[in-house]
């Protein structure tokens, strides 16, 4: 079935620490894995994405890794800042034309 | 510019009302989406339009009626809604990838709908 599991549901870190969020997907045909950040009262904002033909992608303090064999992908945020506090959603594409299925979300709190 | 706009920002309606949500993008994207997001939950796909044609309907009740009048606009017509339909309604757009492959979706800020 179409399912994306995401852990942890909440994550509290101190400013400057690293944060890691993990997701698992069920369909081996999935080939696109975006990460979205959603602040209170706003729509999801794409922060990074990865396609199945690469294993890792970095953009400044943010990185995503993909293990297709294990059907795992992870978001890594280094040197966290209070403005990183938000809900983060992973997603995976599923067959059926541009359908994204989202994980359950991780509430990240970065304390000064 | 990766902006998707949605109006209104907030909407309160009774169960007998008819209202519409509007979404607009000027990125030249040819795929547009409606999602529903309940509090503390992830977005759930409702409809997908590709090249102004409905390509996915995720078994949404008929009291929600989508419309894509042109490549930049997407509407969601609401009629006889229930209180449990109260949620944040998100619009997104993307450029269809080759062979229908998934491409980056950009979301609008959403319309916060309350059904009394």
Order of helices and strands of chain A: EEEEEEEEEEE
Q: Which chain pair has the greatest contact?
A: A-B, 23 and 29 residues
How many strand segments of chain A?
11
Q: Nearest-angstrom radius of gyration of chain A? A: 13 Å
User: How much is the radius of gyration of chain B in Å?
Assistant: 14 Å
Helix content of chain B: under 10%
Outline the low-pLDDT stretches of chain A: none
Task: Give the terminus-to-terminus CA distance of chain A.
Answer: 41 Å
The amount of helix of chain A comes to under 10%
Question: Based on DSSP secondary structure assignment, what is the total number of beta strands of chain B?
Answer: 11
Continuous helix count of chain B: 0
What's the order of the H and E elements of chain B? Answer: EEEEEEEEEEE
Low-confidence stretches of chain B: none
| Approximate shape of chain A | globular
Oligomer: heterodimer
Strand content of chain A: over 45%
Residue share in β-strands of chain B: over 45%
| Broad structural category of chain A | mainly beta
Class by alpha and beta content of chain B: mainly beta
Largest sheet of chain B: 7 strands, mixed
Shape of chain B: globular
Could you explain how this protein is built, in words?
The complex is a heterodimer of chains A (112) and B (116). With 112 residues, chain A is an all-beta fold. Chain A has strands at residues 4-7, 10-14, 19-25, 32-38, 45-51, 56-59, 62-67, 72-77, 86-94, 99-102, 106-111. Chain B has 116 residues and is mainly beta. The interface between A and B is medium-sized, with 23 and 29 residues.
What's the quick description here?
The complex is a heterodimer of chains A (112) and B (116). Chain A is mainly beta.
Any descriptors?
heterodimer; A: 112 residues; mainly beta; six-stranded mixed β-sheet; 0% helix; B: 116 residues; seven-stranded mixed β-sheet; four-stranded antiparallel β-sheet; 55% strand; globular
List the helices and strands and how they pair.
The complex is a heterodimer of chains A (112) and B (116).
Chain A: E1 4-7, E2 10-14, E3 19-25, E4 32-38, E5 45-51, E6 56-59, E7 62-67, E8 72-77, E9 86-94, E10 99-102, E11 106-111
Parallel strand pairs in A: 2-11
Antiparallel strand pairs in A: 1-3, 3-8, 4-5, 4-9, 6-7, 7-8, 9-10, 9-11
Chain B: E1 4-7, E2 10-13, E3 18-25, E4 31-37, E5 44-50, E6 53-57, E7 64-70, E8 73-79, E9 87-94, E10 106-107, E11 111-115
Parallel strand pairs in B: 2-11
Antiparallel strand pairs in B: 1-3, 3-8, 4-5, 4-9, 5-6, 7-8, 9-10, 9-11
